[in-house]
Amino acid sequence: MPCLSPFLLSNAQWPSVLATVSNKTFCKLPCIHVSNWHMREHQRKSHASTFIQSSATVHGCEFDESDEKEEIKLKWMNVGPDLTEDQKKAISQLPLKMSNRCKALMKRLICFSPDADDLSLLLAAWVKVMKPRRADWLAILKEIKRMENPLLFEVMEYALLENSFEANVRDYTKLIDLYAKQNLLENAENSFQAMIKRGFPCDQVTLTVLIHMYSKAGHLDRAKEAFEEIKLLGLPLDKRAYGSMLMAYIRAEMLEHAERLMKEMEEQEFYASKEVYKALLRAYSTNGNADGAQRVFNSIQFAGIVPDSRLCALLINAYCMAGQSSKAHSVLENMRIAGLEPSDRCIALMLGAYERENNLDAALSFLIELEHNGVLIADEASQVLVGWFRRLGVVGEVQQVLREFVVEGAGSFTPYCKTK
């Protein structure tokens, strides 16, 4: 039989959970011809030999090894009777239609003890004895995720290296996304590199997940690299990829770059989601950049999104912070024409703007206008009004002025601010 070349074996991709504990090297093995599957089995047997002596039972798997060179015999054993109430409840909630081989593993995972058990040995025994298929792996992963079991990542990483799982690029993408949602950037990047080393193609979906991950983590440069990689590979940029990159610019407070990218989207007849537009509008509003806020507001309408009272409030806030109360009032008037009732937040913003301008007459006129339109001020606007009048020391006088306004306007007004 020909001897396996150490060079070829050094290029083999081994599971990290196994390679780190193996105490044998392939160059010292007898000269035999083995398949990739046999190599994986030998690696696992070597791994198991570091944990067991002669004959032992580990987490429900019985091992019998009389000699290191002989094959380890694994016998699957069910969970014992000494279960906690939580474990019994979790087992009883397993899906009725789940196959017996899947239930067997789920019971072991529910009763798994990190201190006494070894997950890689448990999974190796399950694979050897139960002969699972991809559908079984998917059912296991789905149930682990539903139960929010902390073993999800380890089981998924093990499954990706199993032939029976028949891993594809989307499986790696899901793992990367799960790591990203937990803000485990290093783990996500390691999974991405493992995917590339195994020869899986890097597609637009995977790169978009990376963009979103780097965006949330505040790594603008890395997000840009992933975004440009999509272009370099000649892959199409979709709404989600653009949206993730836009959020990266917004979080980095590079609003002009975000606007340019948004224009690039619009030229290709792509439009960002309402949440992305709102985030950009809020950024301009917070900075008091009225022009930028108005441009984004126009883009929102151009994208076919009907502005609601919250979007209008952001535009009003931008004008109020810029000291342009007349334009802020125009936005309120446009809301009334469009059939939108101004929210309490909008009213409070207008009153705050009039207070900064020390324009009491305009504020009183605004209140009368609201009264005529049947709009009542609520808590936030009332607090702004009371605080302003109290600082002026004219709470009683304002009530008298309001009555005079009512007489002149031939209307009725009841102040909704408390004087205490």
Top keywords for this entry?
three-stranded antiparallel β-sheet; single chain; mainly alpha
- Terminal-residue CA separation: 98 Å
Question: What gyration radius follows from the Cα positions, in whole Å?
Answer: 33 Å
Oligomer: single chain
Strand tally is 3
Sheet of most strands: 3 strands, antiparallel
Give the number of helices.
22
- Percentage beta strand: under 5%
Mean pLDDT: 80
Low-pLDDT ranges: 1-60, 63-72, 409-420
Give helix and strand order, one letter per element, not per position.
Answer: HHHEEEHHHHHHHHHHHHHHHHHHH
Q: State the share of residues found in helices, binned by percent.
A: 55-70%
Largest beta sheet: strand ordering: 1-2-3
User: By helix and strand content, what is the structural category?
Assistant: mainly alpha
Global shape:
elongated
Can you walk me through this structure?
This protein has 420 residues and is mostly helical. The protein contains 22 helices and 3 strands. The chain has a domain of 80 residues. It is elongated, with a radius of gyration of 33 Å. 30% of the residues are buried. One of its GO terms (cellular component) is mitochondrion. This is (wild Malaysian banana) hypothetical protein. InterPro entries: PPR_rpt (IPR002885), PROP1-like_PPR_dom (IPR033443), TPR-like_helical_dom_sf (IPR011990). Keywords: Repeat.
